[in-house]
Amino acid sequence: YDLPVDGRNSLTWIATDRHHTAGTLTLVVDSGTTGLLADEIFQKEIDRLRAAQRCVCEMTQLAIDQPDYSRFILAALFHMGFIHGRYRFGCTDLVIEVNPRHVRYYEHMFGFKVIGREKMCLRVNAPAVLLKLPLDYAKRQIETKGGTMEKGDKSIYPYCFSKQEEFRICRRFK
């Protein structure tokens, strides 16, 4: 769905299981006029990316409500965000604000790195850390691991779509 988030350029995906919402993810694409939600507390860090000619998008409103299928749902939502951010909008980097308790999860599952120290996020009344994922890194991981369902790999990438599935999705918006 193309749904504006506070007037920002965004896309939202809703994963369902038998008419029950199983997960959501919103991708917000940086623009010269509205920016990102994370600009509220991490503008300095994001401005550094912009100054380096990086095109930034943000993953927000990520929620999974199906513990038994969480990896599959998370991978599908993430991969849709990746496809649109990277190929449709030409983004180079993905940022996400997370609670400091979840940093290690995002580092291990996706390869995110901390670029903004802990600050209070008033939108959710909780502390937040800013993480960044270069989309070139995600692309390489998806190309080598996507669709393999390799159990030994603890990252999300083996659960992403295969290269052929990704190609079929990309054809829909070209």
Q: How are the SSEs placed, and which strands pair?
A:
Elements: E1 9-17, E2 20-29, H1 39-51, E3 56-64, H2 70-88, E4 93-98, H3 103-110, E5 113-121, E6 126-134, H4 135-145, H5 163-172
Parallel strand pairs: 3-4
Antiparallel strand pairs: 1-2, 2-3, 4-6, 5-6
Question: Which features would summarize this protein structure in a list?
Answer:
alpha+beta, 6-stranded mixed beta sheet, 174 residues
Brief overview, please?
The chain has 174 residues and is of the alpha+beta class. It has five helices and six strands; from the N terminus they run ββαβαβαββαα. The mean pLDDT is 91.
Notes on the structure:
- By secondary structure, this protein is of the alpha+beta class.
- The protein has helices at 39-51, 70-88, 103-110, 135-145, 163-172, and strands at 9-17, 20-29, 56-64, 93-98, 113-121, 126-134.
- A six-stranded mixed beta sheet has the order 1-2-3-4-6-5, with helices on both faces.
- The longest helix is centred in the middle third of the chain and has 19 residues, at 70-88.
- The protein starts with 8 loop residues before the first strand and ends with a helix.
CA radius of gyration:
15 Å
What is the tally of helical segments? 5
Order of helices and strands: EEHEHEHEEHH
Largest sheet: 6 strands, mixed
Overall pLDDT score: 91
Percentage beta strand:
25-35%
